[in-house]
């Protein structure tokens, strides 16, 4: 003789789950607003933009992560790149933020190059010292 079990549906728990989901969505929206405000604050400072540029540079978002037969290395560098792409997505709070980072990165690179050229012109070569 088999005994059949009756499963009762607990409607009280369902409303609690719905409330919990609604609460989680609200927290998620609240967290997004806070994150967006933090990003705007960081991008409004030159030091914050410098940090973002450095992180994106380390992530290698503009490099090819493929390392031939080295599948572990490829996976590692693709993981780093993926984090960088996620950061770029965060920066879409304002569409011009990423463009601003790129522009400032180019400007910084040009300034460094000009400084290096100046130093190399001001520093006498070994050959120049022999002529004196």
Provide structural commentary.
By secondary structure, the chain is mainly α. The chain is 76% helix and 0% strand. The chain has helices spanning 11-43, 46-59, 71-90, 96-122, 126-131. Helix 2 (46-59) runs antiparallel to helix 3 (71-90). The chain starts with 10 loop residues before the first helix and ends with a helix. 4% of the residues are buried. The model is unreliable at 7-14 (pLDDT under 50).
Task: Please sum up the structure shown.
The protein has helices at residues 11-43, 46-59, 71-90, 96-122, 126-131.
Essential attributes:
132 residues; mainly alpha; 76% helix
List the helices and strands and how they pair.
Elements: H1 11-43, H2 46-59, H3 71-90, H4 96-122, H5 126-131
Helix pairs in contact: 2-3
Given helix and strand content, the structural type is mainly alpha
Coarse morphology? flat
For the record, the count of structural domains works out to 1
Unreliable spans: 7-14
Secondary-structure element order, N to C: HHHHH
Global mean pLDDT: 81
Rg to the nearest angstrom?
27 Å
Strand coverage percent: under 5%
Largest sheet: none
The proportion of residues forming helix, as a percent range, comes to over 70%
Distance between the amino and carboxyl termini = 113 Å
Number of helices: 5
């Amino acid at each position: 003789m088999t005994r059949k079990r009756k499963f009762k549906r607990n409607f009280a728990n369902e409303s609690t789950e719905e409330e919990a989901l609604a609460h989680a969505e609200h927290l998620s929206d609240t967290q997004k607003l806070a994150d967006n405000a933090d990003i705007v604050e960081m991008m409004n400072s030159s030091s914050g933009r410098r940090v973002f540029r450095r992180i994106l540079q380390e992530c290698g978002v503009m490099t090819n992560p493929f390392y031939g037969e080295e599948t572990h290395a490829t996976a590692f560098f693709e993981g780093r790149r993926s984090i960088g792409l996620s950061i770029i997505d965060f920066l879409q709070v304002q569409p011009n933020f990423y463009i601003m980072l790129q522009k400032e990165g180019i400007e910084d690179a040009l300034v460094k190059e000009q400084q290096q050229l100046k130093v190399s012109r001001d520093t006498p070569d070994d050959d120049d010292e022999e002529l004196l």
